[in-house]
Amino acid sequence: MSMTAFNKRPGLESALAAGEAAEERGDYVQAAAAYAQVAGEADPGYAAEGYFRLGRVDWRQGRYDHALTLYERARTAARAAERRDLEARAENGIGAVHYARGEYAQARASYQVAMERTDDPVLIGRFLLNLGVIANIEGDLESALWHYLRARSLFRDHNDRASEALALKNLGMIYADREEWEAAGDAYEQCLGLSELLGHRPMVANVLLNQAEVLVARQEYERAVRNCELSISISIDIGDEVERGEAYRWQGYAYRMAGNAEAAEAALTEALQVAQRFRVRLLEAEACRELWELKRATRAPDAMRWRDQALALFRDLGAKREVATLEGQSTRQ
Question: Can you tell me the distance from the alpha carbon of 287 to that of 80, in angstroms, rounded to the nearest whole number?
Fold first, then answer.
């Protein structure tokens, strides 16, 4: 049962539209205010929409505990309204929270349940993307690539440009993992073009970071640092602390590769603080790994501490490639 089956109420439809527009431009305060109006309705169909979107706003800002509660409320209301597609979206949101916490088995289970709840090809594409992300983290690049390509095809065929942009970003990440820099750069350029066209500032901030990796691979360090600065500026403006932490992590990487150890350590320390504050374990692991790489290059006495901390985190996350790499490393160059 979809929203089109309801007797639509113009005031609530306007609130949803206003909230969505605010969310897309990164104005989360205004978005939450609009969605809260809808969540307070007695009609379970509208309440489910409101709760789901409130959960998404909290998720975007790294407020995972509250986001999980809101997604669960959305799922319950969607079941009462017999809205399977919205129930699937709420289940996917629950998976996204588990993913952010590094609980990949639970995340995968939620994504698979979500796929069983809908026949909507666009929703299926989104769930395929999420399953691909987990496959990528766990080192199964072929599976991840298959999921991303299939998802992009669904989005392109059904004219969902925002989701296609996300698929392109993920494809770029796979190509970067393979060190296929030309393919990665092309995917990111297409993604950035779509995101700019849609006015999707959070995505623009994120893709700037992905481009930074390609720029570092090309030894264009100043441009990479500049990309990170732009991303940090956007993240601060829209109130996305987790994305700001990611930007500092990439900036630290760019500085490290450029040989600026002092600037690299400052940026990576900031990234680590954000990761720990918001319990983003993958970001914490990556920041620790970067600090290990930085410290071992100068034979700093605390280098192994960062290696061991990164290794423990990656083990907990089930990130096999990262674990294997770190296990084979020592302080020797």
Answer: 43
